[in-house]
Each structure stands twice: as C-alpha cells, then as structure tokens.
Amino acid sequence: MAEPLLGPASFWTQANALLRKNLTFQKRNIWTNIRLISFPFVLCLLLLLLQSLVNNILNTATFKCGCQCIDTNGDGQCEKVCGIQYSTINQVATCPILNPPKWPPLLQIPAPQYRAVKTDFIPFNDLPDHSCRRTGSCPATILFTGNNQSFGKFLVRNMVPNYSTLNSSDVLVSLAQNVQGSASRPTLYNLLEPAFFSDQPVYKVQRRCTNISSISVAIQESSMTIQQDVSCARGSPLWRNSSSAVNDELYKGYWKGNPERQINEIVTGYDFLNTNYNSFNVSIWYNSTYKNESGKEFISLVRVGRSMNLASNAYIQLLLGPATTMLFEFVKEMPKPETEWRLDFASILGALFFTWVVIQLFPVVFTDLVYEKEQKLRIMMKMHGLGDGPYWLISYAYFLSLSSIYMLCFVIFGSVIGLKFFTMNDFSIQFVFYFIYINLQISLAFLAAAFFSNVKTARVVGYICVFGTGLLGGFLFQFLIEDTSFPRGWIIVMELYPGFSLYRGLYEFSQYSFTGNYMGTHGMQWGDLSDSENGMKEILIIMVVEWLVVLFVAYYIDQVASSVSGKSPMFLYERFRKKHPSSFQRPSLQRQGSKVSVQMEKPDVSQESEKVEQLLLEPRTDYAIICDNLKKVYPGRDGNPEKFAVRGLSLALPLGECFGMLGPNGAGKTSFISMMIGLTKPTTGTAYVQGLDIRTHMDGIYTRIGVCPQHDLLWETLTGREHLLFYGRLKNLKGSALTQAVEESLKSVNLFYGGVADKQAGKYSGGMKRRLSVAVSLIGDPKVVYMDEPSTGLDPASRNNLWNVVKHAKKDRAIILTTHSMEEAEVLCDRLGIFVDGSLQCIGNPKELKARYGGSYVFTITTSSTYEDEVENMVQRLSPGAKRIYHISGTQKFELPKHEVKIADVFQAVENAKCRFTVLAWGLAGTTLEDVFIKVAHGVQAFNVRGVKSNQVYQGIGPTHPENRYGN
Ligand SMILES: *[C@@H]1O[C@H](CO)[C@@H](O)[C@H](O)[C@H]1NC(C)=O
Ligand SMILES: *[C@@H]1O[C@H](CO)[C@@H](O)[C@H](O)[C@H]1NC(C)=O
Ligand SMILES: *[C@@H]1O[C@H](CO)[C@@H](O)[C@H](O)[C@H]1NC(C)=O
Ligand SMILES: *[C@@H]1O[C@H](CO)[C@@H](O)[C@H](O)[C@H]1NC(C)=O
C-alpha cells in the first residue's frame, strides 16, 4: 500500500461521488419513487373518471334540447324536429333560439309600497302624503334639474303622457308607444322578460290615473300567448334646484339594509345641464342595485334604455312638435345556437387537487434532508472530506431533477388523458410556473430542514403543510380571491406564503381553462398575463424573488447552524475580513491562557505536555496530532454548576502510533473525540492535526482524517461496497485504484466473501456494521484515524480480524482509539492514556504502566472456611507486606508485593499447606492492565471524594472480574 499521498478531492470529484451515491440510493428506493410518481397518475385518473361520468350524464337526452317526431310536410312520415316547445325545463337551456322574442321596452319603477312619500328627513313638500301607501296609489316620482328651470319644465311636460290606451289588436306597438314600467327584477338573459312572468302587474305610467283597476292584455310572441295584467301608475316629475339636491334625496331614500329607515325610491333622476334649443345634454341617475347575482351591472342597462329614450323623445317633441317620436319598439336578446352542457372537472377541482400533487414533493425533499441530518450522515460525509459546495450543488440539482421528472410526468400524463387543465393553457407558461415553484419549494425544504432533526416530526409537519395548504387554499383563499371587495393588497400578502402562490397559479390556470372550454376558445396565453384579474404575473414575480431570498437564507443558516467547524453567525463578514493578512497569526503564537493544570505527582503527563510545548515551538512533520491544553466546559444549566468534560489535555502523537484511550464511562473521551473531529468547539486550547488548527481549518482537516464513530452511521439501503466506493471517491481515489482499495478494504474486514459486500447495510448484523465502519474510516489512506470503541459487539474471530486490520493500518498513520477492552488496548496500542474525570491520569506504553502500577502478584486460594486463619498466617509468613483484598467462604485473594516474594517460595508454601489441610484450588497471577486501570481510576476517585466510601463507588467497574474489590 505504498501509494503516493493523495491530495484532497476536487470540487467536481466530490460532486461526482455524491451524485453517484445519490443515484444508487435512488435506485434502491425505486418503489418509493414509483409510489410517489403514481400519486398524480391516480389523481388524474380519478378526475378523468369523474369527468367521463359527468359527461355521460350530460350527454343523455335529459340534458339535450328536446325533439319530437312530427309530420311537418304532410307526407305521412314524421320528421324529427327539435326546439324549446318540445323540451322539458332541463333541456331548454341547450336549445337553439334563432329568433328570440321581442319585448316592449320597460322602465324600472319602484313597487307601490316603496315609492317616495313625504318624510321627516326629506324636506320637500311636493312629495305625496304617507297615506297613499295604504291605498297603493303613490305616484312614481321622477326628479329633474338643470341650469334653466323653465326649459326643464317644458321638456318634462312631454315625457309622461297624460293618459294612454292600449290597442288590443296590436299590443306590442301600442305598448311601445306608451310608457310602461315594471317593478320586477331583470335577469341575466332577456330571452323571457321577467315582467311578463311575475305576479306583479306591468304599470302604464301616465299623468293621471282615474281608477287603479287593472286591465289584462294578451301578447302574442313567437307562438307564445301571454296574459298580463296592466295597472296604472301616476308619473310625477318634480323639479329640484340642483343636482346635489337630487343626489341628497336619492341617497336619503336609500334603504341600505336598515329596516328602521323608511324606503323612498324614485324612478330616475334627470339633470338637463345646459340643454337649450341648440344642444341637448342630459345625465341620468338610475338604480344600479338591480343587478344579477353574478354581479354583472350592465344587466340593468336593459331598462335604463327606456328612460334615455323618454328624455330624447321629449326633446325632439319640444323641437318638432308632439307628433314626432323616436319609437323604441322592442328589446330582443341575441340569437343563441344550440349549446351543450360542458363541465370540466379538472378545472373545477384542479386548483385543490393539483396543489396537493405539486406540494407533495415538499415532504419528500424535506424528510430526505432531515434523514441525513438525523442519522448524522451529513456530518459523517463532511468528516470524510465532503465540502459544503458540492453537497449543496449536488443535493439541489438532485432534488431539482427529481421534482422536474415528477412534474413532467404529471403534466404529460394529464395532457395525454386530455385534461383541459393542461391542454388548454399555454405549455410554456405552465413550464415556467412549475419550474419556478419547484425551485422555491426545494429551497424552502433546505431552509425548513435546518430547524428539524427528527424524521418523524419532519414527516408529520410536512404532510400537515401539504393538506393544510390545500384545504386553506380551497376553502379560504379562493373565496378571498373571488370576493372582489377583499383588498388586493392583502391577497398579495397572503401570496407571500408559497403554498398560496402555488394555489393562486393553479387557480388561474383552472379559471382560464374552464372559461376557455366553456366558451370554446383557448386557455391562458402569455398575452393574458396583463389581464387585470389575472394574478399570474404577480405570483411569478413573488416566487422568483422568494426563491432567491430563501435559497440565500437557507445556505446562511446551514453554514451557521449545522457548521461543524463552529462558524459564527457573522461568518460571511469574517470570510471577508480574513482576506486581511494582519489577522493571520502563526499557530505558535496562538496559545492562550496560562497553564494552571494541576500536575501533581504525574511525571508522565507533565512530560507529555513539555513535549507538546517543545513541538509547538519547533514543529515536526512526523507528529500527526498535537493537542495543546485542550479544554471543554459545558455551561451550567438549571442551577447546576459548570461541567468540566475535558480539563486541559496535552498530547503529541507521531505517525505510526496507535494511542489507546482508556477511562470509565463519562470520563470525557467522547467529548475529546468530538472536539478533534469538529463536532464541538474546544472551550480553550486547541489541537493541530497535521499542522492544521481544529478551530479554524476543520475543512482542510476533514480531507486528512478517517472516523469510525461509536454508533454506526450508514445508509440502510446502500451496500457495504457502495459505502466504500462513495467514501473512497470522496478521498480522491479513482478508477482501478478505487476498485482495488475497496476490494482490499472489504477483504481486510472480512466482508468480501459470500456476497456480503453487496448486501444492504440495513441487513447487516451489528458486528458487520462495525467492521464496515472501520473499513470506511480507513479507506483512502487518511493520516489520522479516530476509532471510538471499534470492536464493541464483535465475536472473537471478527475481533481478531479487525485487530489485524488496525495493526496493519497503524504503520503509517496515527490512530486514536478508545476502548473498554483491556485486551484490545494491550494488543493494539503503542501507548495508553488513562483518562479519568476529564484529564489524563497516566500515559505510557502498557508494559511501563503495568510495571508502575502493578508491582505485585495476586494470590488466590480456596480452602474450606475453617482454615481461613491458617491460610492468612501462611501468607503473612511468605510476605509481611501482603494484603488480603477479598475473601468469601474460604476463597481468599491476597496482593503480594513482587519484591518480597519469590514464585518458588509460594509453590513451596502451598505444597506444605496441602499436607495440613485440603486446598481446593489456588493460583498466582501478575497484575493485568485491568488492575492498573482500576487502581488509577480508583485513585482519582478516592482523591476527588476525599476517601469517603470510595470503595463502593467503584465496585464492579471491571465487569469481567466482579470479585475485584478494594479497600475493605
Ligand atoms: C331658459 O329657457 C327659456 C325657454 O324655455 C328661454 O326663453 C330663456 O332664455 C332661457 N334662459 C336662459 C338663462 O338661458
Ligand atoms: C288598432 O290597431 C289597428 C292596426 O294597427 C288599427 O287598424 C286600429 O285602428 C287601431 N285602433 C285604435 C282604436 O287605435
Ligand atoms: C329653489 O329655488 C327657488 C327660487 O330660486 C326658491 O324659491 C326655493 O326655495 C328653492 N328651493 C329649495 C328647496 O331650496
Ligand atoms: C335600488 O334598488 C334596490 C333593489 O330593489 C332597492 O333595495 C334600493 O332601495 C333602491 N335604491 C334607491 C335609491 O331607490
């Protein structure tokens, strides 16, 4: 493995590695993807089904113009004729009306009970008394004004005839010649004039009504005969001094929904302005409240026409004499061809359904991002050298293509099955709209992912967003859009929420396709963007701006929040400042704080920190790791004191050394490793990995280290080989070198044979995952490797295998290894440090430590309990300094100082004892590393708690030797 040292992978190499990993990952999730893409398919099919169902119903004879078989030409055979007269009420609407009936023009006049009378709040005496309302004889008031009162009065005299007669032989003409009015409401279409189809009479308006009895006329119109009552209404024109007086009176008579207030309605108001013999100039007040439910005001114009005709007739008669009239003969609706019912479901339900379809992608992208965060895979990738740039580029491009493919499938499928929603609207608008939206959505997912670290929560929140947005859009936002009185500014504000801007866009598409389909024209075109009611232009602008802003903010927050090298919120500012050379300092000058670590009788530890001092002054390349008084303090919370996780650790590690870190749980080992791999920032002090400072150059360090974390950080669906390929590529391995390295690595951790390498990591046993993690940490020849309890959960065979791998690997690199297995530490480590309570208690190679802290044999003997005293005497004779450390029902354990006893003497003594009493079993052992560990750990503990009950605190620390108890 004497390969040349690989430089850090370039941007594109990293991007390539990540892309390939993502593609493989996606291939594994093929079923999830198919389910995802089939969702819009299912919805489209559902719409199609509904549509064809509705079409089936509408296409039946019930909703088509009625027909009958009638012998029209008398040849004895019947021909099919269709028309209104053969239709039921459901069918009429679709029939052709080629020759709509003519209706006499009518005035809109108030019903008798609302006609203007004298009241307290209208100061005019020319109005009739209130009592007329009881008899229904109130006059229909017409107000007029103008610059010349006498001229106005001349005009008005001609307007309302004194009396009128109806010629029953030609009713229509005589109705037109007189002035007719109705209190009924006009409708959207004037095919049937409602005045002739209501209970209310038609009023003939004249100066005097002799009697108010009604007569009845019959109107014959296009094969219909209508019987209609006609009663008399007295027309009463009243002069007002100014137009503001007219205005005032009209306003005061307006009911305005207040039932307390008396209603005083008038017919029309005329302002003759400067009309004289040479010019005719008039403005007319009319009641525009007579509108149809659809809100289209021009409907009432049908009846305004007659009041205009009245004024102009009066003027002409004034000029040319009473015989001259412009006859306003009739009102006629436009002819109508045969139509058919068309209901486009995709357009009606589209906005709601398709909002769901499009926004569905959000939780997918969102949970993917949170998954990588929750599983710490992002950190893991970063620790193996994946930079932020490639990560963002590839993740973004990857989600964008995923979304694009999804949307493309959706639109193509919808168009293929012929949903008008897609086919009617211009495809380029649809493309632009969807493209901008999915970009916005992905940026939003990145932003949201910064605030979540749990996939389940993220998924729930994501789907609540999906359904909430759809429902709020459909049942709140849409009403607000359609309510023309709702301020448009607030609509824009609501559209700042991307879900609503999506809804608005889809709503506009559906509106255009619906009307386009109904009217038989086209849907939205680019030119329609300038329509005043079309909100598409605004939302396109909103979304583009939002996309850029959100993307920037997401990147910023990602850098600050998830940054492992601890960038401050001002990192952009700092990055700018860094260009100033003055702020750069040499590492040796950066040491801060005075050394106050308590270096009591720990010569090895202080020797190490002297070495560190030395190395800082004269850097040497063969030292891979230099920790300089590294400290980590967690601030006190809830009244608890500060917690010192690491209290000043100095350590220098040359290449080719494996340093074992031993220590009880909670001693601070993991805190130390976290600092070294950049998960947390040191409180004070620092460390240099291959000369790079962990506080400032973590990104550079990541390309040089390998990490085997305590908990396996693996993608469940990727195989072992794929993991190694990915991390290998991140470490800049390429081509055959990569395949060879992966294969060797797999073989070395015994994952190569039996197809294990190509099994998904989720199906591995705990041991296999562990081995894979170790392989991952070693791939690409990193110079520094951290292994956090690499062999936990391994069977003895795999463990030996793994040890061989590590032994082989440590030749040209520095390894820091934490473990609870003394055996492992003894086999693998060149040096050991025992780490208790945040600081190193001793440091040295295993043999030295054993010699220093051991120095005694452990003598175990089992007899029947009656001979216990005799055994004790025997041991005292052998070695006066012996100490009994353990005894229970005849089994005793003694510690014998090495310098006092010879092994031969012990054998002799036991042989002698065997003559006197039965010795069931006995043994003599040198100190193990475990004994050292317990002794050191115990010593610190005893010191810290000042000897109080220290024996109980450490009882049972060595799980393999439960009989080890000290200090009785
Ligand atoms: C008002 O109209 C009358 C005719 O009706 C005319 O004689 C008179 O000059 C007009 N007055 C003004 C100020 O125009
Ligand atoms: C009624 O109308 C018919 C036809 O236009 C006409 O001959 C007749 O004289 C009219 N009768 C009266 C009373 O005007
Ligand atoms: C209208 O004007 C006439 C004459 O200029 C005046 O006598 C009358 O009081 C005015 N009417 C009102 C209601 O102001
Ligand atoms: C206008 O018409 C509406 C509807 O019939 C009526 O309620 C209202 O009072 C009328 N307003 C005036 C000023 O006549």
How do the helices and strands line up, and which of them pair or pack?
Elements: H1 11-28, H2 30-58, E1 67-70, E2 79-82, E3 102-103, E4 107-108, H3 132-135, E5 140-145, H4 149-157, H5 171-177, E6 180-182, E7 202-206, E8 215-221, E9 224-239, H6 243-253, E10 269-271, E11 283-285, H7 301-320, E12 331-332, H8 345-359, H9 361-374, H10 377-383, H11 388-416, H12 420-423, H13 427-449, H14 455-482, H15 488-494, H16 498-519, H17 536-561, H18 571-578, H19 603-617, E13 623-634, E14 643-654, E15 658-662, H20 669-676, E16 684-689, E17 692-693, H21 698-702, E18 705-708, H22 720-730, H23 735-748, H24 766-778, E19 784-788, H25 796-809, E20 814-818, H26 822-828, E21 831-836, E22 839-844, H27 846-853, E23 856-863, H28 868-878, E24 883-888, E25 891-897, H29 903-916, E26 919-925, H30 929-944, H31 950-953
Parallel strand pairs: 4-6, 5-9, 5-10, 7-9, 15-20, 15-21, 18-19, 19-20
Antiparallel strand pairs: 1-2, 3-12, 6-7, 8-9, 10-11, 13-14, 13-16, 16-17, 21-22, 23-25, 23-26, 24-25
Helix pairs in contact: 1-11, 1-22, 2-8, 2-11, 4-7, 8-14, 8-16, 9-13, 9-14, 11-13, 13-16, 13-17, 14-16, 16-17, 22-23, 27-30
The structure holds 2-acetamido-2-deoxy-beta-D-glucopyranose (4 copies).
